[in-house]
Amino acid sequence: MDQKQRPIVDALEAFQSTSPISFHVPGHKHGLLSGLPDGLRTAMRYDATELTGLDDLHAPSSIIREAQQLLADAYGADRSFLLVNGSTVGNLAMIRAVCGSGDVLLVQRNAHKSVFHAVELAGAHAVFLNPEWDESTCTAGAVAAGTVRDALDRHPDAKGVFLTYPTYYGIAGDELPAIIECAHEHGIPVLADEAHGAHFVAGSPFPPSALDLGADAVVQSAHKTLSAMTQGSFLHVKSHLLDIDRLTRWLSMLQTSSPSYVLLASLDDARARIAAYSEADKQAFLTWRRRFIDRCSELTMLETIEPDDPLKVLVRHKHVSGYALQQALEQQGVFTELADERQVLFILPLLMEGKDFPIEPVMDAFAAAVRALEHRKEDEPPAAEPAVPEVYTAIPISGGTASSSSEWIAAADAEGRIAASAIIPYPPGIPMILAGERLTEEMITDVCRMIGSGAAFQGAVRGSGDSIQMEVKTDQQGGDRHG
Fold it and tell me: What is the mean pLDDT of residues 115-128?
């Protein structure tokens, strides 16, 4: 197929060239009735609906169908879908396509919150797969094949394996092929949240896509590492173990019935750009990346860490936390993806040949940030590693406050109580504690320490300093921690 084609983009441009008069939704009438700034109102000219010639995302027959065929061709999938509700809706649909009430799903513990929401909505039971500790990034990394084999031996009735690949920090590991082989020997699909790997199709030195390694369904956030707008994602299927009609039905139920054509056009364009990504483009990116890392290394207070994905770089300051470094950089106008107690995560631009992304202003900001932190010294961050559970117990993920009463109490009084809903550092949106888990002293200490260091949280925790509260169930029915 001709990957230079952009059927949705071209159709929108052709439609607007006719100077159409709107007596249909949306009510802003091509931006005419909007009070937004001119720059935003310009884009509203393309904010159309399912008009003649513009197709229908939920029953594609022309331009959207063609765009999805081009997408499948570019990524080597049997079927591909454009998603306008982010990778979240892809995770929800994939899990609902394989799991029903009471079913068991093997789930990587350091998964995005949407995965646990999907298990909860399905009424399924999660068996947590504890990841290996990655020494280089000091984060939870990939799952070992032995962990999956052990879990499948204990739960041969599992309906599927759900993995995060790569992790938010760019860790891919090298055991995914063995995990996929093991799952397929048991006749179950492997589902992959590849939100941070839409660019892997560009080939080495990027890791291979989970789809190329044999995963059955893969969701990718085209807005995270490609050029699509926020909320724009891809979903790919290449499998005889997954009912694609069932998946399609769930997508139709879960995605908005009023999809944004601006988002769809941006996805169409992002696919065309990555499909055209050449070796020359890749070398331009790698040259820029090497220069960025070398310049960072010139500042003696900084250390850089290079994970599996070359699009990610971690930067640490020798004396202060990642939160402090991030704040100092923001004061200089440089905004990063996330910070934790040790480091700051940079998602680099996937540059193409001839495209410039200035380094000098960034390095000036780094130097100014380092100077601002010159006299600060904080306590060393904790060196804790995640505990590996001795058993893999299937537990239901409860509805939290949706299905039981709760109360807010001081964090100091929460030990032994049951978390009413998940406690989630955001970003990255990976739950530290799930609804129904019993709060231990260690959990509470970790959350309070992170809040004190500058971490932002969603869910069952609020406050700061000495006034941190946690939301707990008023009854005590819950589970123990399982990894």
Answer: 94
